[in-house]
Design brief:
Strands 11, 14, 17, 18, 19, 20 and 21 form a 7-stranded mixed β-sheet that branches. The chain folds into 3 domains: 107 residues, RNA polymerase II/Efflux pump adaptor protein, barrel-sandwich hybrid domain (OB fold (Dihydrolipoamide Acetyltransferase, E2P)), CATH 2.40.50; 45 residues, E3-binding domain (Dihydrolipoamide Transferase, Irregular), CATH 4.10.320; 196 residues, 2-Layer Sandwich (Chloramphenicol Acetyltransferase), CATH 3.30.559. The radius of gyration is 28 Å and the shape is globular. With 443 residues, the chain is an alpha+beta fold. Helix content is 21%, strand content 23%. Strand 9 and strand 10 form a beta hairpin.
């Protein structure tokens, strides 16, 4: 009997609990070589290609495109080629040490099979596959990564012929549609339904006589509540980035003690046209250097903090798939041109989903420049282990009292939310003042 090896989904990030199957690069019965692409998985951080841990034959694939696979659950079965050299860790016997969840599994379950191979970090134990169907939006089943690709290639998903299981649109379906132009956005619908078509579906029914509603003693009609109407919306399973955002926000709400200070940065002294985002980042750096307590990580469990000598700023980037926060590394040593180039690179990588997972964590403080859309002040969410986040609101021209009269100044609303477990109100106020002072400089 052939020796069948099961490959279990490794942690594709830093403690990520699951990932979504985007596309299989093989099918059952195919031969595959060691480290050849097995599948693409969407995590909360990026779309990751998972390499094969074996050279051999693919016996079984767990999950279809759009399905969610828990970290440590079975991903694929292989029949390794006995004549081929396999990866050393894939050949090892015994159990690798995985996350706590795996260590708590029953001994009997552990004995049923070995952990076979790894991609990122150590393998974990588990023999249950948890999958959920791809979300159906507008009658189209597709995962977030597929929708992102369709948007990028200007493909109308409603016009794409799905090839995945249960009518799921795959990445290849979108690529094919983009190549042959069969589903371009803005094109005429495939099956136009005339407005009069509904008349032929059923004979016209006689209209009921109008019903007289209740009246008051004064003879005036009384307004009554409309009949209850059941909502038509369908529940959508959160996946990928949005799924992770929901977890992160819930954890932040449960752990952090947030306090927010607000003030306005006066930009009246600026000379010439300047890069607002670059100035914001420079001001945050100046404030971090003046008050290091907010450029820190806080461990609430052990009640310890880590002050960072460098300033790595997490820049909130809004996308249709959810919120990304890539890290602008070493902002304290970059000039304005370096800051702008780094921001452009990060945004491009986020938009095409090529950003490495390592760039989406490890920042020491955050910036949310929501004012580019709307809003003046906010209470941005501090995500542990960071201690603070700066929010920049929409610029405005305000009447300001000055000695001898009034003037109209351009001002930027600033909101600073900090974790009051890790920093005092005085530290936060001094941080905010240092930030405002830097923003008020001419250049």
């Amino acid at each position: 009997m052939a020796d069948i090896k099961t490959f279990y989904l490794p942690d594709l990030g830093e403690g990520l609990p699951d990932a979504t199957v985007v596309e299989w690069h093989v099918k059952v019965g195919d031969s595959i070589k060691l480290d050849a692409p097995l599948c693409s998985m969407e995590t909360a951080k990026a779309v990751v290609d998972v390499p094969s841990p074996y050279t051999g034959k693919v016996v079984k694939l767990y999950g279809a495109p759009g399905d969610i696979i828990e970290t440590g659950a079975a991903l694929a079965d292989f029949e390794p080629d006995p004549n081929a050299k396999q990866r050393a860790e894939a050949e090892a016997t015994g159990h690798h040490h995985g996350p706590k969840k795996a260590e708590e599994a029953k001994p009997a379950a552990k004995a049923e099979r070995e952990d076979e191979g790894t991609v990122v970090g150590a393998m974990v134990s588990g023999n249950t596959v948890h999958v959920e169907q791809a979300a159906s939006i507008g009658g189209v089943k597709a995962g977030p990564a597929v929708r992102a690709l369709a948007k990028k290639l200007k493909v109308d998903l409603a016009r794409v012929r799905p090839s995945g299981a249960d009518g799921v649109v795959t990445m290849q379906d979108v690529k094919d549609a983009a190549a042959n132009g069969s589903a371009a956005l803005g094109a005429a619908p495939a099956r136009a339904v005339p407005a009069s078509a509904g008349r032929h579906l059923a004979p016209e029914l006689p209209q009921p006589e109008p019903q007289r509603g209740p009246v008051s003693l004064a003879g005036k009609p009384v307004r009554t509540a409309p009949p209850s109407v059941q909502a038509n919306g369908q529940p959508e399973q959160l996946k990928g980035v949005r799924r992770n955002m929901a977890r992160v926000m819930a954890d932040a709400h449960a752990q952090v003690v947030p306090t927010t200070l607000v003030d306005d940065a006066d930009l009246h002294g600026w000379i010439g046209k300047q890069d607002i985002t670059a100035r914001l980042i420079r001001a945050i750096v100046a404030a971090c250097q003046a008050v290091p307590a907010l450029n820190a990580w806080f461990d609430g469990k052990n009640l310890s903090r880590t002050l960072h000598p460098q300033v790595d700023i997490g820049i909130a980037v809004d996308t249709d798939d959810g919120l990304f926060v890539p890290a602008l590394r070493n902002a304290d040593v970059l000039d304005a041109a370096g800051i702008r180039a780094a921001i452009k690179r990060l945004r491009t990588q986020v938009e095409d989903r090529s950003i490495p997972a390592s760039e989406l964590s490890g920042y020491t403080i955050s910036l949310s420049n929501f004012g580019m859309f709307a809003g003046r002040y906010a209470t941005p969410v501090v995500v542990p282990p960071t201690v603070a986040i700066v929010g920049a609101g929409k610029l405005s021209h305000d009447v300001v009292a000055v000695m001898g009269g009034i003037e109209v100044h351009r001002r930027m609303p600033i909101s600073l939310t900090f974790d009051h477990r890790a920093a005092t109100g005085g530290e936060a106020a001094r941080f905010l003042k240092a930030l405002l002072d830097d923003l008020s400089l001419p250049n």
